[in-house]
Structures are given as C-alpha cells and as structure tokens.
C-alpha cells in the first residue's frame, strides 16, 4: 500500500454537491458549495494487495464548504471518500477501471456522526448531511463508491489523534469522560 500525497479530488473546489434527505436522522435535502480543498489522504494499492482482501484503493478529501441557500455562508466541513484505481491502472480504459468498482464501505467517521446524532450529543459537531453514490461513467472508477459526509464547523481545535496525544493525561481523561457520559 502506498499513502501518496497526490490529491485526486482538488478539482471539486467550486462545485456543488447535494446530500440526500434522511428523514430518520432529521436531515433535509441540501446543496453544498465546496469552497476550499483542505487536505487529502490517499490509500493506493497494488493488485496483489487488493487481491488479498485489503479493501479498495481510495482517497479521502476534506473540504471547507457552505450551504448554497444560506445567505450567511456559515462554514461546514465535508469529507468525500472516493474509490480510486489500483496502482498502474490509473490511465487504463474506463472498462478496465470500472471492473475494479466495489460497493461502498462503512466509514467510521460517518457511523460515529450518525450514532452521536441519534444520541442527541451536544459536545460534538453535528452531522449536517451525507450521501452514498456510485461514480458516473466520466469518473475515475465508473460504478465505484463515493461517499460524502458534511458536519458542522465548530469553534476550537479538531480532536485529531495527533492533537489528542499531545494533551496532558488529565485533559485526555476529561475528554474520555465526556464521551462516556454521552454513550451511557
């Protein structure tokens, strides 16, 4: 596996994405405008790695966005998980690339945000929308998965693993207690 810094989804800056209505989670149909590509983590795979069942090659890009119909332009975050070609097939014809298409995966981030929304958690960013779709004929893996997740941008620092582990033990324990309290 190769974690390449190559950004596959930077071209989405300025485009619009509509997240589906999810009545179960009280999420309306919404259109989002992508303002800025913030970061992207790419997991490239060779054919033998893929054949061993290590999942699909994919990229996960984080963007700053806003709701199209919001005159305030209140910012939100969006992450798009997008299937990409197996290494050395990036420039193959679309039939070859489409043969790599697989069903969407369960992404921990989306599962956690859904669960926290169901629990009415007030100490984490709110899930604002999501969608699962298959890539179209003009995309990099026709028929491959593409999952979009949108959540509220709140003040403060993102609780990344790097940030969490530089905190004092006392601060980490406080965060753990807050999360336990939500789930009890």
Number of domains: 2
Structural Rg = 18 Å
**Distance between the terminal alpha carbons, to the nearest Å?**
38 Å
Helical amount: 10-25%
Largest sheet: 6 strands, antiparallel
As laid out across the biggest beta sheet, the strand order is 1-2-3-4-6-5
Please identify the structural class as seen in this structure.
Answer: alpha+beta
Average of the residue pLDDT scores: 91
Quick tags:
184 residues, alpha+beta, 2 domains, 6-stranded antiparallel beta sheet, 23% helix, 29% strand, globular
Walk me through the structure.
There is one protein chain. This protein has 184 residues and is of the alpha+beta class. It has 2 domains: 144 residues, no CATH class; 29 residues, no CATH class. The protein is 23% helix and 29% strand. It has 5 helices and 6 strands. The protein has a 6-stranded antiparallel beta sheet, covered by helices on one side. The longest helix has 15 residues. It is globular. The termini are far apart. The model has no long low-confidence stretch (mean pLDDT 91).
In short:
The chain is α+β, with helices and mostly antiparallel strands and 184 residues long. Helices cover 23% and strands 29% of the residues. A 6-stranded antiparallel sheet has the order 1-2-3-4-6-5, covered by helices on one side.
Compile the SSE list and pairings.
Blueprint lengths: L15 E4 L10 E14 L3 H5 L6 E10 L7 E9 L10 H5 L9 H11 L8 E8 L10 E8 L8 H6 L2 H15 L1
Antiparallel strand pairs: 1-2, 2-3, 3-4, 4-6, 5-6
């Amino acid at each position: 596996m190769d974690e390449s810094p190559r950004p596959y989804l930077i071209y989405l800056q300025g485009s619009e994405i509509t997240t589906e209505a999810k009545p179960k989670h009280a999420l309306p149909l919404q259109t989002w405008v992508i303002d800025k590509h913030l970061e992207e983590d790419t997991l490239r795979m060779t054919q033998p790695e893929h054949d061993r069942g290590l999942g699909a090659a994919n990229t996960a890009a984080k963007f700053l966005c806003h709701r199209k119909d919001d005159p305030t332009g209140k910012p939100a975050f969006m992450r798009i998980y997008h299937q990409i070609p197996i290494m050395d097939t990036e420039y193959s014809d679309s039939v070859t690339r489409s043969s790599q298409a697989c069903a969407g995966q369960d992404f921990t981030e989306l599962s956690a945000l859904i669960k926290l929304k169901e629990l009415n958690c007030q100490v984490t960013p709110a899930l604002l929308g999501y969608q699962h779709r298959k890539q179209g004929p003009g995309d990099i893996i026709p028929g491959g998965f593409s999952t979009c997740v949108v959540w509220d941008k709140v003040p403060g620092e993102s609780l990344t693993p790097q940030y969490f582990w530089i905190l004092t033990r006392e601060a980490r324990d406080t965060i753990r207690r807050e999360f336990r309290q939500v789930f009890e």
